[in-house]
Specification:
- The protein is mainly alpha-helical.
- It has 2 domains: 2-75, Glutaredoxin (3-Layer(aba) Sandwich); 86-195, Glutathione S-transferase Yfyf (Class Pi), Chain A, domain 2.
- Helix content is 55%, strand content 6%.
- The chain has 8 helices and 4 strands, in the order E-H-E-H-E-E-H-H-H-H-H-H.
- The chain has a 4-stranded mixed beta sheet, with helices on one face.
- Helix 5 (123-143) packs antiparallel against helix 6 (156-172).
- The two termini are 21 Å apart.
Length: 203
């Protein structure tokens, strides 16, 4: 199995963490979706996006949600980080929806500030993106249980939220951005980062 993409992408990182938590042996190819790597990546994924996962059967999967679904089915419902059904699955999926929306707004803010000349930044739009990201993460924080997001067991909601949160905090919050008040997510990230699967995938 081969994981394609750099850990600087929170979507690549959440797949990498999941592979480690599942104990699935894999090769990692740290290709980027830009620069010299783009042509090589496009031969793997026509969209030239990461992550991509080449399975042991030679099939290529793209999009982190698709990859995580495949890995969950591979390890089975007893080990899967996303519950197969019931209220626990609903809770995990609800938190994933909020966290994914929050990081997508963060990524849009990152591209606005890092891929466009400063004189072309649309500041009202950038301010809206940062506010939406803040609101999304704070909604996850407010819904958090303890010690993990939905209780005693780590789930994909924790894996993804930590990857997304750390990307947002480290890469997308410029000086003067609205402060994010997320003590529960911060505590969960500290707990998660004591685990090798998280430490080994730090960008």
């Amino acid at each position: 199995m081969i994981l394609i993409g750099r850990f600087g992408s929170p979507f690549v990182r959440r797949v990498a963490i999941t592979l480690r938590l599942y104990g699935i042996e894999h090769e990692h190819r740290a290709l980027s979706s830009s620069g010299e790597d783009r042509a090589t990546l496009q031969t793997i994924n026509p969209l030239a996006r990461v992550p991509a996962l080449i399975t042991d059967d030679g099939e290529t999967l793209v999009d982190s949600a698709t990859i995580l679904d495949y890995l969950d089915r591979l390890v089975g419902p007893e080990k899967a980080l996303t519950p197969a059904d019931g209220s626990a699955r609903t809770k995990v999926m609800a938190l994933l929806g909020l966290a994914t929306g929050a990081v997508e707004k963060s990524i849009s803010a990152y591209y606005e500030r890092n891929k466009r000349p400063e004189e072309k930044w649309h500041h009202p739009w950038l301010d809206t993106l940062l506010e939406q990201s803040k609101d999304g993460f704070e909604a996850v924080d407010k819904a958090a249980a303890s010690p993990w997001l939905i209780g005693d067991k780590i789930t994909q909601a924790d894996v993804s939220t930590v990857a997304f949160w750390e990307f947002a905090v480290l890469r997308t919050r410029p000086e003067g951005a609205p402060a994010m008040n997320c003590p529960n997510i911060t505590a969960i990230a500290d707990r998660a980062n004591a685990l090798p699967a998280f430490l080994e995938t730090k960008p």
